[in-house]
Amino acid sequence: VLGSTISVSWSGPNNPHDYITVVPAGAVDDGEEDHQETRQGSTLELNVPERSGDGEIRYVAGKDHRILGHRSLDITLPVTTLSVAAQAPAGSTIAVKWIGPDHPGDRITIVPKDAKDGVVGNSTPTAKGSPLTVQAPIVPGEAEVRYLTGRTGRVLARSEITLVPVAVKLDAPAQAPANSVVNVDWEGPADRGDYLTIVPANAPESAGGKYDLQNGSPAEITTPREAGPAQILYVSGNGGRALAARPITVTPVN
Question: N or C terminus of the chain with fewer C-beta within 10 Å?
Fold first, then answer.
């Protein structure tokens, strides 16, 4: 099976740096595939390439890389399936049921549907078992859940999922004095790492303090020290993206 480990017994000259390797049939020996020197013993454990089709096990001379012996190997695709909900809130934690080879390093990831193969978003190792959970991207839209191999990130299975916008509401006074505390009523997913902040208008989310959501609603938040237009932001812990904004005017202290 693609990506698996096989035992290879061999006999040969066992000259210095001779080695056994497994490669796609007809491949030029470029050293990229797994190999073990024969000095390691007469039975070696080798990783099968993560490419299906005709393959070869080779005994290769260490001195000049001549192939001294070879044996054909049929490299097959493992049965791999994914089962997820048809849609979920963007940024939420999604349960994924899967069947697959579960080789070392294999993982499940969720990425935008148009992301190229090899792109890895938030992911969870298959070693966590089935079902497992993966945090979805915070940006709404069409996405894919993908099963990736551990060594090369090859996609063995994919399942489409629609990420819908997250409903977030903010309610607070229209104005408040500088460096004062305001109560902000909020509704939102309260996912891990989400927070509220107040920053001057057009300032980045990181310009203000972080107020976690563990104490529920309303949240007590301190306004900036400088007077002027500002905004209250609900910021996702998944990538630091602002999911909602409410304007507030910070007035001078009399």
Answer: C
